[in-house]
């Protein structure tokens, strides 16, 4: 008895791990910005990225690691996107311009638990160091104090942003003047 030849399976879909990882990060950024850490589920991220949630665990290990990578990369971008002398403008514009990722900053601020604390610690250290380098002083202790005060002020402004009236440009201009005064002494 002869059997009919089996139809060939279609060629397997090529796998692109970099594209899958990027899709997961993009979906995570959107959801963390919209819903915060606690309101975002790994299933929701995987669904939005169009992949199985097992891939999320494969690439990131857990939700905390996904959160850390998704928000850290975007929040640290102003540190490397230009020269140090324009850092304050870049950071403030990113932080307060709704079209440039301000929701991500506020997701970090409002995140509770170990994931939020770890990311805030990492970002705080990076920005504190960058701000200290801008301080007009040769005293490293004073430079660190100025940077710490500036960072605390900016974080407070970030949390109060919904109650602050005025346009983004005016807000950035006022805060920029105050930040420069603090750093210049």
Automatic annotation (TrEMBL):
PROSITE patterns: HTH_TETR_1, HTH_TETR_2. Keywords: DNA-binding. InterPro entries: DNA-bd_HTH_TetR-type_CS, HTH-type_TetR-like_transc_reg, HTH_TetR, TetR_C_16. Residues 41-60 bind DNA. It comes from the Bacteria. It holds the Pfam family TetR_C_16. Residues 18-78 form the HTH tetR-type domain. This is Helix-turn-helix transcriptional regulator.
């Amino acid at each position: 008895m002869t059997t009919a030849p089996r139809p060939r399976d279609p060629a397997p879909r090529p796998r692109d791990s970099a594209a899958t990882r990027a899709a997961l990060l993009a979906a995570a950024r959107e959801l963390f910005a919209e819903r915060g850490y606690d309101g975002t589920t790994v299933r929701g991220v995987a669904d939005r990225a169009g992949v199985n949630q097992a891939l999320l665990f494969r690439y990131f290990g857990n939700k905390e690691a996904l959160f850390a990578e998704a928000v850290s990369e975007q929040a640290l971008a102003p540190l490397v996107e230009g020269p140090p002398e324009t850092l304050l403008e870049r950071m403030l514009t990113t932080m307060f311009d709704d079209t440039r990722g301000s929701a991500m900053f506020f997701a970090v601020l409002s995140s509770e638990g170990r994931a939020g604390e770890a990311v805030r610690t990492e970002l705080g250290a990076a920005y504190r160091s960058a701000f200290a380098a801008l301080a007009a002083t040769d005293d490293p202790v004073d430079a660190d104090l100025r940077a710490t005060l500036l960072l605390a002020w900016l974080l407070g402004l970030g949390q109060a942003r919904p109650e602050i009236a005025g346009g983004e440009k005016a807000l950035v201009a006022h805060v920029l003047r105050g930040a420069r005064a603090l750093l210049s002494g």
